[in-house]
Each structure stands twice: as structure tokens, then as C-alpha cells.
Design goal:
Length: 261
């Protein structure tokens, strides 16, 4: 069981920002990644739809023998993780909107959050905000269009810069000093985001905290893989296989097995 793989899924390629962090901190684990790029973005979709897809993907990953599943998608975490935990007897790790560390670190008393419609309308975001950022000015913005650019493997172009300027400028007027990347796709646009936000704003990516949490759950439940494995990860996509392979290879810096579902 401890040498079974970890499953990771996302609406598409965004969860690879969590995967990247995972393999650098927990290198012995084998990973099966499922990107639902054929159905991305999840952000504007209904809760019922996201629960349905998350359930189907979980069944797929469990059939592959996964011992733990990381829902590497803020939108799917908000919509579906409690349903998944009730339905399946497997540990699930979800995304935290990282408001807590940003609220703790702010000096100006203002923080920004970029995310999807689904994430902001879910109760999880509202609860986290109420619990940890009650005394902080939180400016959130649905960052429509960014996920699509990441899915195309695009960054550093003027269209992205224009969108980011529209989303981030109003936050700068409110003097934010931390900006939470509330969608796992956004770390792939970190350079573009930093350029618009300026050097006075610290970007907060929750991937590291999620990986630390995964490590402690693996240890606590006796699921950690202690044997050095010759890990060969597998990637599944409902989207374009060639495009996915190119992006996965460039992110992981090696040739990978990418299959279509
Ligand atoms: N990567 C996603 C998230 O963290 C999904 C965004 C989307 O598909 O709209 O929210």
C-alpha cells in the first residue's frame, strides 16, 4: 500500500504546479496525474458538474490503485471535496486559498486574491476569509481568461499583461503587499503577474503548504513510501495529447508518458 501511487487531479494543467512542488519535496512517491483539459475551465461551471467530474476522475485514480488523492484545483476543492470525502474511503488533500499566510504577513493591511468564480462563491473561501482575515482588507478578483492561456502553454504576451493589469491595478490602488494565487494555473504566469504587481508585492502560492500537509498525512496514516523507487509517473488528459505532452515535458524537464482518456 505504501508503494501505491499518489493521484493528483485538476481541471487541466494547473495542478502541475502542485506536482512540481511534490516531486521536489517527496521524491520517492509515484504519481498518477489526471488533467481534465478537455473540460476546462471549471471556474464558471456548476457545482453539480464539478462534483460529477471530480467523482469520475476519483474513480479512475482509485482504479489505478492510488492511496491518496490531491485535488490540485481550488475550484474542485471548493465544489467537491466534502462530497468526495463522504463517498470514498481515501485520504483527500485539497487546496487552501492561502489567505491565512498572506493575512498574517501583510504590513499594509491589504491583500489581493486572484481566483475563479467557483472558488469565490464556495463556502470554503468565505469561511477561511472570515476566520483568518477578519481585520484585513481582502480584494478578490475573478481572473477570467488566465486559465485558457496556461492551457495553451502561453505566457509573457501582451494579452495576458492587459488582463492582469485590469485585475491587479485596482488592488494596487488599495495598497496590497501580498497577492494570493488562488488557482493552481496561475503560478505558471508568476513572472507576468509579478511584472504587473511590481516588486513591492509578494506572490503567495499555496502549493508548498499543500505538499507539506500531504507529507504529514502520508506519515500519519503510514502511507509514506520509504523505499527508493525508480519512479515513472503517468499523466492522463482528456485534452490534446501532443500539447499536453509538450507542456508536461517542459515542466518536469524530462520525457514522460502522457496518455489520453
Ligand atoms: N486550476 C484550477 C483552480 O485551481 C481550475 C481553474 C479552472 O479550470 O477554471 O481553481
Amino acid at each position: 500500500m505504501s508503494d501505491s501511487p499518489i493521484g493528483i487531479f485538476d481541471s487541466g494543467l494547473g495542478g502541475l504546479s502542485v506536482y512540481k512542488e511534490l516531486i521536489s519535496h517527496i521524491p520517492n512517491e509515484q504519481v498518477i496525474y489526471f488533467g481534465d483539459s478537455g473540460n476546462a475551465p471549471y471556474g464558471p461551471k456548476s457545482t453539480d458538474y464539478i462534483i460529477k467530474r471530480s467523482t469520475e476522475i476519483t474513480e479512475f485514480l482509485l482504479a489505478k490503485g492510488c492511496k491518496l488523492i490531491i485535488v490540485a484545483c481550488n475550484t474542485a476543492t471548493a465544489a467537491a471535496i466534502s462530497h468526495l470525502r463522504t463517498k470514498f474511503d481515501t485520504p483527500f488533500i485539497g487546496m487552501e486559498p492561502a489567505i491565512k499566510p498572506a493575512a498574517k504577513a501583510t504590513k499594509t493591511g491589504s491583500i489581493g486574491v486572484l481566483g475563479t468564480q467557483g472558488t469565490f462563491s464556495g463556502g470554503h473561501y468565505q469561511n477561511t476569509k472570515a476566520k483568518y482575515a477578519n481585520n484585513v482588507n481582502v480584494i478578490y478578483r475573478v481572473a477570467t481568461g488566465l486559465v485558457e492561456y496556461v492551457e495553451q502553454g502561453e505566457k509573457n504576451n501582451i494579452y495576458i499583461a492587459e488582463l492582469l493589469t485590469k485585475y491587479i491595478k485596482p488592488m494596487l490602488l488599495e495598497n496590497i503587499d501580498h497577492l494570493v494565487l488562488g488557482c493552481t494555473h496561475y503560478p505558471f504566469l508568476s513572472d507576468d503577474i509579478q511584472k504587473v504587481a511590481g516588486s513591492g508585492v509578494t506572490l503567495v502560492n499555496p502549493a508548498n503548504a499543500v505538499v507539506r500537509h500531504t507529507l504529514s498525512v502520508l506519515k500519519m496514516s503510514g502511507l509514506i513510501n520509504t523505499s527508493k523507487s525508480n519512479r515513472q509517473d503517468e499523466f492522463f488528459t482528456t485534452g490534446d495529447i501532443e500539447k499536453t505532452k509538450r507542456i508536461v515535458d517542459s515542466i518536469t524537464m524530462r520525457m514522460n508518458i502522457v496518455k489520453s482518456v
